[in-house]
Amino acid sequence: MRRFTVRAHLPERLAALGPLSTNLRWSWHTATQDLFARIDPQLWADVRSDPVRMLGEIAPTRLDELAADADFLAALDRAAADLDDYLARPRWYQNQIGRNDGTGVDVGNGVAYFSMEFGVSEVLPNYSGGLGILAGDHLKASSDLGIPLIGVGLLYRAGYFRQSLTADGWQSEHYPPHDPQGMPLRLLTESGAEGRDVPVLIHVAMPGGRVLRARVWIAQVGRVPLLLLDSDIADNDTEMRQVTDRLYGGDQDHRIKQEILAGVGGVRAVRAYTRLHGLPDPDVFHMNEGHAGFLGVERIREWVTGADLDFDAALAAVRAGTVFTTHTPVPAGIDRFPADLVRHYFGGDNGQNESVLLPGLTVDRILGLGSEGDPAVFNMAHMGLRLGQRANGVSRLHGIVSRDMFRDLWPGFDADEVPIGSITNGVHAPTWAAPEWMELARRLVGPELVEEARGWERLQDLPAAELWRTRAALRGVLVDEVRRRVRASWIERGATAAELGWTDEVFDPDVLTIGFARRVPTYKRLTLMLRDPDRLRALLLDEQRPLQLVVAGKSHPADDGGKALIQQIVRFADEHEVRHRIVFLPDYDMSMARYLYWGCDVWLNNPLRPLEACGTSGMKSALNGGLNLSIRDGWWDEMYDGENGWAIPTADGVVDEHRRDDLEASAMYELLERAVLPRFYDRDDSGLPVHWVEMVRHTLEKLGPKVLASRMVRDYAVRYYTPAAASAARIREDDFAGARALAEFRRRVDSGWPGVAVTRVDGTGLPDTPEIGDRLTLRAQVRLGDLAVSDVEVQAVIGRVSEHDELVDVVAVPMTHVAVSPADPGAGAGEIFTADTELPVSGPVGYTVRVLPRHELLTGPAELGRVTAAAN
Ligand SMILES: *Cc1c(COP(=O)(O)O)cnc(C)c1O
């Protein structure tokens, strides 16, 4: 059956409901939600708070009533005016741009942000987990900050899947199809024949002369447009129609087609959008993970065919404006394709033939961008790093792990010199903090609360009793939601209403509530809590100080191991004795997650360190005053401060996984027994857990401003987008003179580098027993072959000598070119460089001299991955 949705015709006076329902800003604006609820509270609940559905189902007579209801009209006008103001008023970015005090940002012609998934709202279920939610929060925070940004991705007909449980606790998957007409989307159109608007169609050439076509939907996320490509149209053959059927479904061939559409088609969609809206082309292209990496190849093609650049110059130009963010610390988590598959799609006759996917580019150059050790494999993360002049991981620890993981791309450099930085993820407070908290905080702090992350210290003024009342109220809301969902799940599992009376008694609004909800890959260790079932049972059933546990999460449909873990939890939670204290709620998604973050007192996270790149659910809990109980992994490694929760000790060095699980589970139980539970149940005369509430206050005040998506996006704007936009503008000047020069330089370095050598190093000037701060004079003789002195930076590298005979804690001191040495029969002629420097460290000290490429358009001397050090 083909379904479709008919949108209601709104009376003229209610026309403003249209934009209020389709601009997804309503999803983080409580006043707009209240307005829709007011139309018909029962219907609002029935359509699960979906304004577009609501307007589709509301009776016309009710609309006529509202059009004559003065109170409603006043509220409508207020909401409409508020949205207009939000869209038009200068925001943080508009106030920063052009400032010269070091805080200035300028993203030039804007940013195009590519991601395979976007979790903006449950009414647009186009995500599977953390990566997508992060992308959604990135768009919302960019909108709040006023950063000119366009999101780009795919619209999946069935999104990810909906999860339910079988009677024996096995996960089953459903893929209800979505109708774009019933979602807050509009088509990108242009005027066609006879002035009629027709949908813009993006074309991507496929092997054998076929064409993959896609229309472009626009979701409006506040000020930010999100372009979503959709191949499910009649112009495509069946195979091409299915390209955007599901997120992360299908085989490698299916997946590469999706990634080609997202990357190559995505750039074409951006071009169509900016052309039709009279906007400039974005300067910065941000790849949120490597999936959309083909965007860089398409941009190379644009300049090769449109600006008459060769591949290398176009690559230099693309790199200048490209930012790549990596999200996985596990090599197995990286997207890889068989090289032959890439050849299949990007090959063909490689001439100027229009029917080839990227005319003008040879497939060997494309393969080179994704090469790794194994020539049969194409690595999307490597391509991301080769296409982006700037790259980052998503927490401080993940930055360290990433520099180590990708260091082979920068041979000869220490891991800490690998040019991959980090920006710690954040979460969008107006989406994830309960309205109660937002209201309290806005009253206390004011509008600078979120965008500027200022004023949070004023939470000191909040009475402890009020803090606690809010926490307790939100726990109560969660308890109701748990009961509703447990009952619904049992009905789906085949129970009848008559045997479900007990579900009204599930959970207790006064009991310490712990949440654990996330996808179910092995490293997240869903079942660690079951390591010692009797110990867990005792905690759940303790008469004086019990705890209750709510668990949720989806396993990838192809991962039976993950489904078995879910089944273990479900079977335990089904036990008669404990079923009122532990629940597994099926179908974890944004709408459920919200209740968990609001209501849980403690958020549990026990990944295998360091495999959690960042993690964001704990941040959402913290924004609601939840205390984290977590392994020090991802964000928690840098933000745990001793007072904002608890760190589960890790058994990092223990190789035997079972033993490691035992040790870490035992540490977790112990923390619960000795620290968490006693503190929660330690009450003063008025029943207030004074110490607990102070931890809640401390968490909100100190952690709150650090975990905000606005902080994250400001970091990107200042540290990545602004320099990338400047590089991109500069490299294009004078008909791409910089791009041509940098490409030429790179070719010279590539061919000339084998001729570079440090032939001699002398150190003089130190006393017999040197002390820290004494001066050392270094003189090095360097052979440069075909390269010029201006092509290189020569550095003296001084540091402590470790037990492994390596230099650590090093300082690199640039050396000055002084002369050409007289021909020396031993070493050959060479350039002489000197430096005069202080001894920076004590203990065993060593030094060496190294040569690196230097060019004003590089971000630093490590960028090209070339270095030659003195031989000894
Ligand atoms: C925040 C969130 C995630 C990601 O949580 P992690 O801690 O990163 O695992 C996944 N799913 C939903 C619905 C979320 O809200």
Automatic annotation (TrEMBL):
One of the GO BP terms on file: carbohydrate metabolic process
Q: Which Gene3D superfamilies match?
A: Glycogen Phosphorylase B
The protein's matches in Pfam families, at most eight in alphabetical order, are given as: DUF3417, Phosphorylase
Quote the InterPro entries the UniProt record gives: Agluc_phsphrylas, Glyco_trans_35, Glycogen/Maltodextrin_Phosph, Glycogen_phosphorylase_DUF3417, Pyridoxal_P_attach_site
> What superkingdom does the record give?
Bacteria
**Cofactor(s) needed by this chain:** pyridoxal 5'-phosphate
| EC number from the UniProt entry | 2.4.1.1
Catalytic activity, per the record?
[(1->4)-alpha-D-glucosyl](n) + phosphate = [(1->4)-alpha-D-glucosyl](n-1) + alpha-D-glucose 1-phosphate
Residue ranges of the DUF3417 domain? 10-124
Q: Which UniProt keywords apply?
A: Allosteric enzyme, Carbohydrate metabolism, Glycosyltransferase, Pyridoxal phosphate, Transferase
An example Gene Ontology molecular-function term: pyridoxal phosphate binding
Write down the PROSITE patterns for this protein, in alphabetical order: PHOSPHORYLASE (PS00102)
Chain positions found as N6-(pyridoxal phosphate)lysine: K620
**Which family is it part of?**
Belongs to the glycogen phosphorylase family.
What is this protein for, i.e. what is its function? Phosphorylase is an important allosteric enzyme in carbohydrate metabolism. Enzymes from different sources differ in their regulatory mechanisms and in their natural substrates. However, all known phosphorylases share catalytic and structural properties.
Instruction: Identify this protein by name.
Output: glycogen phosphorylase
Q: What is the lineage of its organism?
A: Bacteria, Bacillati, Actinomycetota, Actinomycetes, Mycobacteriales
